[in-house]
Amino acid sequence: MSALAAPTASLIPAPRPSADGDAVDVLPVLYVPEARQWLSASEGRVAPEGYSWMQGVHWVAASGMYVPRRYRSHGPRSFGPTTVVIAQLLAELSPCRPGIEYLMRRTGLSERAVEYHLQMLRETGLLAWELRGTRVAGEQAQASVYVRMLPPAFDTALGIRTVLRDETAPAYTRAVTGIAEAGRELMARLGKKASRKVRRPRSKTSSRTVAKGVARSSSNASVTAVSDGTRCTPMGGTSSGVSTAGTTSIPPESKLASGVSKLSPPKKSTAKAYGRRKLNTVGRRFQLAHELTQELDWLRGCSVPRIAWVARNVADAGWTVTDVKGWLHLRGEAAHVRRGSGLLAVLLSNAVTVLDTPEKRAAAVEQWRGAQEAARRHRIQQVRARTERYEGDWQAPSSRSVQREVEAAFAQVREAVNGGRHQGHSADGQDTPLEMSEEERKDLVAAAAGELMRGETTLITSLDRETAVRIYGERLVRRAHQIERGFRSSLMTNGHR
Predict the structure, then answer these.
(1) Is 314 in contact with 324 (CB distance < 8 Å)?
(2) Cα separation, 407 vs 440, whole angstroms
(3) Lowest mean per-residue pLDDT among 99-108, 140-149, 225-234, 361-370
(4) pTM of the full predicted structure?
(5) Residues in contact with 493: Cβ distance below 8 Å, sequence separation at least 6, in sequence order
């Protein structure tokens, strides 16, 4: 039981006649429905001041007559110290008009937690609405105005006698006229509790941390005793004239014989592995979503929370990003992606059902890796073939008409080099145009243009510039020489889609 709680038997005395004829009754369960939580409908009486009201708060907290979980399945489990702390803040206010943000700032609780504790104070009859707050859109929120009340069960348990001095006044204005002899001792104990401040209890984690820190500091403390009047100087000495060497404790020989300390090594924390916090279910989902957005190109830029929700089933099943890649290869990916999260949701459907064992996932991953290796080798072969085509010997074009024209051009070049007469020269050594029809020239121009689009310049560069310009035109010849210069540059890559 908490420090502020007392045994229920001492707070609710057994029925026995007192010296002045009064009797103290055993009370039923304490609960006020919402319809009677207003001041006009309340059966309690108004507390004269904050001190008397805190006596009633401590009595309710220690009596155990109110259990919140009897009436709802959520919220706090008991009327505990946190509720008493909020009651202390309410006792300081006059009028009692607390704002939710004010209580959140003073206690460090969330908005929902503050609302829960205010509801418990109303359900026990300790608070009553005088004016309920409003929240209207576009206007400033208005805080509720409460009246501090003492429930009838409190007066009955302690044998407090009350009287309504004005017959026309409401019943909640009745005043105290006396108390039963059996309740005087209990009222005195409640008065001591009301005069003390109750602090909000720390969480169990922080308590363990403080305890470990105290134990660590005590174990690392010096064995030299220092008197109260002794203070340390900057050089490590003391201002006291008495030597402290005689107070040094020497360990026994049994602890120094082996030279090994018998202190147990500090326990390693299981909450962290390899310096990182162990992830829970939601953390694993977000981790997998982040890796997917980094590894898959068509998921780049997608919202990580949305991807975490889409991949929640495979993340909960323990899948890694490699397992997802293996499944996507087995499932098949789309060529054009318009919405990455939607496509991933479709591709991951029934993934956990199909690959329901680690062995099946491992087989899918091996198949994906084999396909990746085959694609890598295919790319290498393509690059090697393109390099050999560009840097190796020239290969004849596949078109027969183009081949005939190329062979004629090469024959003319060879005859010119040998000093002979060719088709482009006359008997007197004057150049004559090649005997080529306009249709044939158009075919050559179209063939050369198609080769240039694929990055091949053989048809044009195999001829001298003057002949090439006469056949193909200045534009195609200039483009062919630009592509040839690009082949010799390491900053340009040629290819086609």
Answers:
(1) yes
(2) 14
(3) 225-234
(4) 0.41
(5) none
Tokens of 428: 């007197």
Residues 6+ apart with CB under 8 A from 497: none
> Cβ distance 254 to 283 under 8 Å?
no
Q: What share of the chain is helix, strand, coil (3-state, %, to 5)?
A: 50, 5, 40
Extract the tokens encoding 379.
Answer: 């790319």
Which residue from 34, 16, 36, 33 is spatially nearest to 24, judged by alpha carbons? 16
Contact between residue 111 and residue 119 where contact means Cβ atoms under 8 Å apart:
no
CB atoms within 10 A of CB 6: 20
Return all residues near 282 (Cβ < 8 A) that are at least 6 apart.
Answer: 308
Reduced to 3 states, what is the DSSP secondary structure of residue 328?
A: helix
Q: Name, in order, each residue with C-beta under 8 angstroms of 393's C-beta and a sequence gap of 6 or more.
A: none
Are 61 and 4 within 8 A, CB to CB? yes
Contact status, residue 126 vs residue 56, Cβ threshold 8 Å: yes
Neighbouring-strand partners of residue 276: 273
The ranges assigned to domains in the chain are 8-195, 282-366, 400-487
**Widest pairwise Cα distance in the chain:** 156
Q: What is the pLDDT of residues 62-71, one digit of tens each?
A: 988 898 888 8
d(CA 257, CA 253): 6
CA distance 435 to 74: 100
Render 402-468 in DSSP notation, one character per residue: HHHHHHHHHHHHHHHHTT---TTB-TTS-B------HHHHHHHHHHHHHHHHTT--HHHHTS-HHHH
Supply 375's token pair.
């694609």
Task: Give the whole-angstrom CA distance, residue 229 versus residue 55.
Answer: 44
Pull the structure tokens for residue 70: 């009897």
Tens digits of per-residue pLDDT, 431-485? 444 456 788 788 888 888 888 887 778 778 878 888 888 888 888 888 888 888 7
Q: With contact defined as beta carbons under 8 Å apart, do 441 and 409 qualify?
A: no
Question: What is the C-alpha to C-alpha distance for residues 365 and 322, in angstroms, rounded to an integer?
Answer: 7
Q: Does residue 183 contact residue 24 with C-beta atoms inside 8 Å?
A: yes
> Are the beta carbons of 459 and 444 closer than 8 angstroms?
yes
CA distance 81 to 60: 11
CA-to-CA dists, residue 104 to 61, 74, 82, 121, 211, angstroms = 21, 20, 12, 16, 28
